[in-house]
């Protein structure tokens, strides 16, 4: 029995896929505005964001889901409202030297 297995660098592909999702989430002015509002206030409710960004709740929910899926924000539900905060560890990682080194030569 002589079996040959093809090895691929799954970790590198997985890493690129992860960052693709995060950077796509950040590549939109409305989502950047949402992140700015969360940064300025520390925590925001959908009801507050809808008024400030003048977006219907359905569109706001669409953008919040993309940011949640990219893990750059976190949600906490209290009663009937959802409150959003930055995922500081993920944001700090995206802005860190560690990530820059992935594409930088010395």
TrEMBL record:
Highest taxon in the source lineage: Bacteria
UniProt entry keywords in alphabetical sequence: DNA-binding, Transcription, Transcription regulation
Any Pfam family the entry gives: HTH_5
InterPro entries: ArsR-like_HTH, HTH_ArsR_DNA-bd_dom, HTH_MetalResp_TranReg, WH-like_DNA-bd_sf, WH_DNA-bd_sf
Gene3D superfamilies in the cross-refs: Winged helix-like DNA-binding domain superfamily/Winged helix DNA-binding domain
SMART domains referenced in this protein's UniProt entry, alphabetically: HTH_ARSR
Keyword DNA-binding attributed: yes
CDD domains with a match to the protein in the record: HTH_ARSR
Domain HTH arsR-type: 12-106
Protein's name according to its UniProt entry: Metalloregulator ArsR/SmtB family transcription factor
Top-level taxonomy: Bacteria, Bacillati, Bacillota, Bacilli, Bacillales
């Amino acid at each position: 029995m002589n079996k040959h297995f093809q090895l691929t660098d799954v970790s590198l592909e997985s890493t690129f896929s992860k960052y693709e999702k995060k950077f796509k989430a950040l590549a939109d002015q409305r989502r950047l505005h949402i992140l700015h509002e969360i940064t300025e206030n520390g925590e925001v409710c959908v009801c507050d964001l809808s008024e400030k960004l003048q977006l219907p709740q359905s569109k706001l929910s669409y953008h919040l889901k993309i940011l949640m899926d990219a893990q750059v924000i976190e949600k906490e539900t209290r009663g009937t409202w959802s409150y959003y905060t930055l995922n500081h560890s993920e944001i700090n990682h995206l802005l860190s030297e560690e990530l820059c080194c992935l594409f930088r030569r010395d």
